[in-house]
Amino acid sequence: MLMILSLVAVSASAEPAASTxxxxxxxxxxxxxxxTDLGAYGSEMNTPTLDALARDGLLFANHHTPASCAPxxxxxxxxxxxxxxxxxxxxxxxxxxxxxQAHYQGVLGRNVxxxxxxxxxxxxxxxxxxxxxxxSRPGELPSQRGFERTFILAxxxxxxxxxxxxxxxxxxxxxxxxxxxAELPEDFYSSTFLTDQTIDFIQSQRSDGRPFFAYLPFxxxxxxxxxxQEFIDRYDGVYDVGWDSIREAxxxxxQRLGVIPAESQRVxxxxxxxxxxxxxxxxxxxxxxxxxxxxxxxxxxxxxxxxIDYLKQAxxxxxxxxxxxxxxxxxxxxxxxxxxxxxxxxASAQGYRTDYEDLGLKGSFNAIPPSFASxxxxxxxxxxxxxxxxxxxVPLIISGEPLDWQGQTTHAFTYVSDLAPTILELTxxxxxxxxxxxxxxxxxxxxxxxxxxxxxxGEVHPSDESIGxxxxxxxxxxxxxxxxxxxxxxxxxxRWHLYNIAMDxxxxxxxxxxxxxxxxxxxGEYERYVVANQVLPVPADYDARVQVILNGLHARGAKAVLxxxxxxxxxxxxxxxxxxxxxxxxxxxxx
Length: 591
What we know:
By secondary structure, the protein is of the alpha/beta class. It contains 16 helices and 18 strands.
């Protein structure tokens, strides 16, 4: 505890330069990791490294982030709302009429200051190895945004085994090293390589004694979901029970661990198929898809363990604070039948196979379907891109010997914009003012989570503070224990709902009719958020998946036929679901 108090005291004094006693910061970001994808949160997956960090640190059970990667990353690195930071959506999904606005480019704006810039000014070495996705043109790369050493993927994703784009909207996989185009080695596997780069960066400048900030945004478990065979093999037969059984088992284990309330309920998403209606062959294939996903999670955990081993051997661990979180919830873009003709055609056009034997290995394309995505976020509703808890509530662990949390769990509501102010406080780094270099900049809007040091059962945000959110027409507003949420169709029902997410994280009981005054008040707060942050409406016929293809067609007209095949493969299952839902009268999650 004395160490923690001294860190806070350093923050208050705002020393002009970091000393050798200033803590190192390692910020690890998973990609599309579901809420209960770690053992510490209730998973059947083997994640010993991250579970150990949770046992030695503080596990956050009520942490939220935007439901898509680039907005989340912008807020993580700046502490500023994504609409103000220039990244209200990923650039691949922004419709043309929104692109006319300067703050809707999907590129990190010059009106915000990154955490890396602030720490670099404080005397820290600053490193990034992994996915950036906040700009790829000159001046937009992390080497121009405060990072001293970089090896990054500029795109939304890429293959994990070779330098290859995973979608034809990209001509190539755009990797950069220290601001220059880079080539990947022949023995590349993303989680291994990015960990190696991080270790190399730290080791290369270790001798000068200056503290470091290392940002490690993994590709795991973004599509294509791929993993080394030895990790896949560990899950042979685990998922033969089906997605409903996994979702139920995780719910029970999360309750037992105290991650969610014992009395909490869950819904069954309307996009979840009937496992028992599948043929034995289809069940076998679907179980393998999830086994690859689990193998990719465990491979990431294994490599985080390698990084921690290095820090310990180098004598750096005792002065290092580690943050681990995810950029959003699990992605459900895998087609229900990945082996059907449209899916196989789309995969083949990109040089991928989808056969069972090689699933997850080099040359294979894999992604989990909505049914298994609902298990990954259990017991929450919805998933990536949507404003339900399954898209926005993610793991967060803060650990390290300079802290004294020792395996505690907090249910305090926290938001991704809180992490930058927390790191500034821990490192004694002043927050940016209103102006920097003669240019107006946005102040940080998040709050440090350090009050939880002395009281993990306390709160970070006052119960009367409202935090608004919008992404691609899906929206939410949080206040205290309550949340109003709007999810667009065809998966959502195009209606606002009110939930007590502290007691009901599964969003099973709509309180709008029971609490009409609170509901209306929060709707009014959301409208004020829209005006204050210049949130633009999406077109009435907007479909995020279709927009990705249309934007790709615009950028790469020569590949129109290939993109057309992909468009058909991506949208057909969802169009069929929409038709089936309309026939049955079913809307959103079903009890």
